[in-house]
Amino acid sequence: MDSKKLFQAATFAAQKHTGQFRKGSAHVPYINHPLQVADLLAHKGEAENTNLLIAALLHDVIEDTQTQPDEIEQMFGKEVLDIVLEVSDDKNLPKEIRKQKQIEKAAHLSPSAQKLKIADKICNLKDIIEVAPNWPLWRKLDYYTWAENVVGQMKGKHPVLEGLFYERLAQGREVLLTRKKRSPWFKGWGNLWG
Ligand code: ZN
């Protein structure tokens, strides 16, 4: 594992996401999200897969910041860029089309992009509970259904991540439907992926 490159990527992403926040009233810095996705992958068997971890740190910079693909390629190489591009939506398309495309594309992504995609969705399921965007309940449940559709296209390919996804999906739905204040799995950073 190349820790210099990893920290370079974390710093790069932090700079690019400066001033951005996760949806919700808690003003959670956006960078928390890519850090969590990389952290999850490192804890679920991908700790030696440096390019995947770097791509996880950078996975939203093309979609959500002014970052150019060339910058990523020059600093982190083509393999990282390719993974990031695979998981980036085309922001020129309307939201509903982008969401549909994610479902259609999921089965055809590279294995690394699929792992990143599942980890991303797990973190988003968690944030919908923990960071609690100011959405009505139906919209939160709608996100859960859509995420299930996306991950459902990759059945059996990444059992560890898939298992965690369905666990969090069921737990999150229970929290949403019973309107519990805290999710049952949140016990602080150290135990996030337990
Ligand atoms: Zn993301």
Structure characterization notes:
The chain has 194 residues and is mainly alpha-helical. It is built from ten helices and no strands. It has helices at residues 3-16, 32-46, 50-58, 61-64, 69-76, 78-86, 95-106, 111-130, 137-152, 159-178. The model has no long low-confidence stretch (mean pLDDT 91). It binds zinc ion. Zinc ion is lined by residues 33, 59-60, 120.
In short:
This protein has 194 residues and is an all-alpha fold. The chain contains ten helices and no strands.
Secondary-structure content class: mainly alpha
What level of helicity do the residues show?
55-70%
Content of β-strand:
under 5%
Mean pLDDT: 91
Sheet with the most strands, sense and barrel status: none
Gap between N and C termini: 23 Å
Describe the global form.
Answer: globular
Q: Which segments are poorly predicted (pLDDT under 50) over 5 or more consecutive residues? A: none
What Rg, in angstroms, do the CA atoms define? Answer: 16 Å
What small molecules are bound in this structure? Answer: zinc ion
What is the overall number of helices?
A: 10
What's the count of strands? 0
SSE order, one letter for each helix or strand: HHHHHHHHHH
